[in-house]
Amino acid sequence: MDNPRKLIVGYDLCDDYSQISCYSYKTFEPIPISPVIDDDNTLIPTTLSVIKDSRNWVYGQEAIDCARDGSGILIDRLLSKLKNHEEVEIFEQTYSAVSLLEKFFRKTLTLTKNHFPTERITQIVVTLHEMDGTLVEGVYETLSMLGIDKDRATVISHGSSFMHYALSQDKGLWLNDVGLFDFNEEGLEFYRISVNRRVSPMIAGMEKKDFTDTLNYSLLNSRNVDLGFTLDNIANTVLYKQIISTLYFTGRGFDGGWAEDVVRSLCAGRRVFMGQNLFTMGACYAAKELAGDKSLSNIILLNNDMIISSIAIRVYMDGMNKELFITDAAVPWYEVSSNIDVILDEASDMELVFRNIMTKETIRERIPLQDLPDRPSRMTRLKINIVCINKLQVKLTITDMGFGDIYPSTGKVAEFILDL
Question: Does the model's pTM come out above 0.85?
Answer without folding.
Answer: yes
